[in-house]
């Protein structure tokens, strides 16, 4: 029989061992599914510096048990974790939409198990810290829509990267050549910055690329010589990259999955051999180049929209197959003849727009002009002498509309490769917005308005705006404005200028007309958010346009006054006081009346 003292001795031994372990400073094993202590400490420090958490890290801090700090239409702060039997490691970090976040704490780069890091749409400034190379397991890295600047650090260690979004920053220097080593990269978006070309030839090594979007490079005069065996490429956007020389038709014909090509605003030349393109191509934008020759009579059956605007050396006739299939073609600014597809009056206005023998004889010269962009004809009750013309025509992904009754033309090119972005947007009838601001024409590329037949002179161009798509604080719509080929606004932000979304604002500019044509150009410059509240929410937006001689002083429909909560409360107090005053008057009057009736009744009885 065992001695009764044996269990007691065993208990004393176990307690002694536990005390010794504690005194030796050795940490005990983490509880099941707790967050790795290093990850937890790093995340808490980062969130504390960003104002997402306060104070000292609490005992047993377990962020993998929380996951979400904020999740609204404007801001998101969340993580995701991968857990084993002992602990959880932080693998995903999303902090977006915080305009007060201006720097990246060094502790963030201690989260070495991260596979996804999204810091887009904040207000980050300065250089990207070189410690980003510590995150060698990253597959997704998005830091678009910030104010990061200086040169791009060497991040060649990120060999697992699959998606890299860095657009709409102020990053300088050459296009990083080490990106070509990211063999797993499928989605690269790099535009709206201050980078210089050329695009390195070794980008041909990106054999898994599906979406390649590079633009706005501050360099000109180098060839298009970096394409590779991109068998998975679906979207190719190389807008405003400074290319010159012949366009590689032969190369692109082998990209069988290619559906979207945007090569606008380069200096490419040669012919456009559409017959060599694959059968899946839907959108082709090659406007503002120097292509020559003529378009083939037969177009690819898959083609939905073709933009060849402002290629003055393009000649010939419109392809006959385009009219049969209702394919959209915008050819303003070329020498292409419309043939029988365009009426004589339309053709006369188009010739004026293209400066091809503008004949204004017989045209009703407008003294002024007004258009309700994206909306129906409208006459403001406050100004019955001004009629805003109907501009509700659907222009698809590349087209124009000619109004021969009022001598003006609207032209549009652009569509988002990842959504069916609409060229006309509206706001609900329940809003208190003035009628003129409830519709707008928008574009993910360019909008042109041409007024034809104006007498020579100085004119006031009045542009009407209201951001009716992006809610205040959630995203940024930025675009440029040119009038008569002169830039007058860069990075124009409607919400910022108006003090928020759904607030009307007008801007007046002066322009000289010497050739009977006034040209207004609004266009996307690669800046601003792309996908808030949905894909394709970027580029210019305009509610109405009005043009009149500068010598005249004309009233315009005023923007609706913004109603603040303070004003509403003040009006409520005033209304309440007024109501009480009225009630007091009624009560007093009633009392006097009843007293008079009582006195009369008493006198009557005595009589």
UniProtKB/TrEMBL annotation:
All copies of domain Malectin, residue ranges: 368-545
EC assignment: 2.7.11.1
Major enzyme class: transferase
GO molecular function annotation: ATP binding; protein serine/threonine kinase activity
Matching InterPro entries: Leu-rich_rpt (IPR001611), LRR_dom_sf (IPR032675), LRR_Rcpt-Like_S/T_Kinase (IPR051824), Malectin_dom (IPR021720)
Superkingdom of this protein's organism: Eukaryota
Pfam families membership: LRR_1, Malectin
Signal peptide: 1-22
Keywords from the UniProt entry: ATP-binding, Glycoprotein, Membrane, Nucleotide-binding, Phosphoprotein, Signal, Transferase, Transmembrane, Transmembrane helix
Matching Gene3D superfamilies: Galactose-binding lectin (2.60.120.430), Ribonuclease Inhibitor (3.80.10.10)
Transmembrane parts of this sequence: 573-596
PANTHER family per record: LEUCINE-RICH REPEAT-CONTAINING PROTEIN DDB_G0281931-RELATED, MALECTIN DOMAIN-CONTAINING PROTEIN
Name the UniProt record assigns to this protein: non-specific serine/threonine protein kinase
Originating species: Oryza sativa subsp. indica (Rice)
Lineage: Eukaryota, Viridiplantae, Streptophyta, Embryophyta, Tracheophyta
